[in-house]
Amino acid sequence: MTDTVNDLNPSSGGSCCAPKTACCTAPKPKWSWQNFPGKDYLFSTWAIVVGGPLLVLLLDPVQFVAFVTFAVKAFGGTLPYIAFAVALIAWLKASGAEAYVGKAFEGRETQAIVLAALFGGLAPFCSCEVIPFIAGLLAVGAPLSAIMAFWLSSPLIDPPTLLITAGALGWPFAIGKAVFAVALGLFGGFLVSVLLRGGAFANPVKMGAATGGCGCGASPKTGRPVWRFWHEDQRKQKFGAELKANAFFLIKWLALAYVLEAALVTYVPANLIATVVGGDGLGSIVISALVGMPAYLNSYVAPPLLAGLMDQGMSAGAAMAFMIAGAVSSIPAMAAVWSLVKPLVFATYLGLGFAGAVLSGLIFQLFV
């Protein structure tokens, strides 16, 4: 007898495994979902990006133009940030400078967290526009604690938002939101720093995210980065590869984010979302934070709507919790964040956003 797989029926008492071979498997049916050639594309990110507008065209053609226009304009507004971040990542990796940038943070984590929280309060980025810069910071090895500080504070406030909030809700509310933005960034940054020392968040970046791959390294002669990388073929190839890979990654996930955002804006009216969070007391603050997290209500639309609800009896604390939770995270932002980091970091980001929103609402309620 040879060492080959035989065709005995197991029910007949024979063995389905021959010596030195793996067990044979039952023959697959002629058609199986696992064999469907398009299954990997049917539920892919691009399928949702393309299929979402097509679904609107089929089911609600009246809204199609507005839906697509909103998504395209929002995505177009982010393209300059994507281009800058992608080019910077590719340049740092091709020149061999990424390791040096990462070392610049060594022993200076506290300063990095403080600066990240303060800069985040001035940066004019929404929760989606900040994603390319987060990808860049992850790529060059910045500490996760400083990244989290910037990540949390950046979408909350910026100079235009400060003025719009002050005009609709008053300067106490606007200044309070600015203070809470920086405070949340500091709180999140230092908490992540403590967790890092305890061994948490090892390798926080997802495999295949817009940060992978080592750079070419410094010059073997001088030990310094080669800033004019285009003089070496290997570095030029590295630049091109990083440029394409990171651009494709960020464009794909941010396109998904803005299609989801367009769906929320089109089919979930902002005044309906805001009405749900009306009320007073601790319960309304918690509900406001819970509803605000997945909802999309940007910092330019929220102040006048919340001002009207506060005139109707909504508490200042609930309004503050809703604004902070909605700015830190929304369904579009969650999709982009999920693409970059591992589940534990993602859960920490959401947990900090929710806790920060509730605490900010409670504190603001006490002092207003």
TrEMBL record:
- Membrane topology designation: Multi-pass membrane protein
* Superkingdom of source: Bacteria
Q: Which InterPro entries match?
A: DUF318, UPF0718
Keywords, in A-Z order: Cell membrane, Membrane, Transmembrane, Transmembrane helix
Give the UniProt subcellular location, in the record's own words. Cell membrane
**Record-annotated membrane-spanning stretches:** 41-59, 66-90, 110-126, 133-153, 173-196, 245-267, 273-297, 318-340, 346-367
Alphabetical list of PANTHER family matching this protein: UPF0718 PROTEIN YCGR (PTHR34184)
What family does the entry list? Belongs to the UPF0718 family.
What name does the UniProt record give this protein?
Permease
Q: Which organism is it from?
A: Roseibium sediminicola
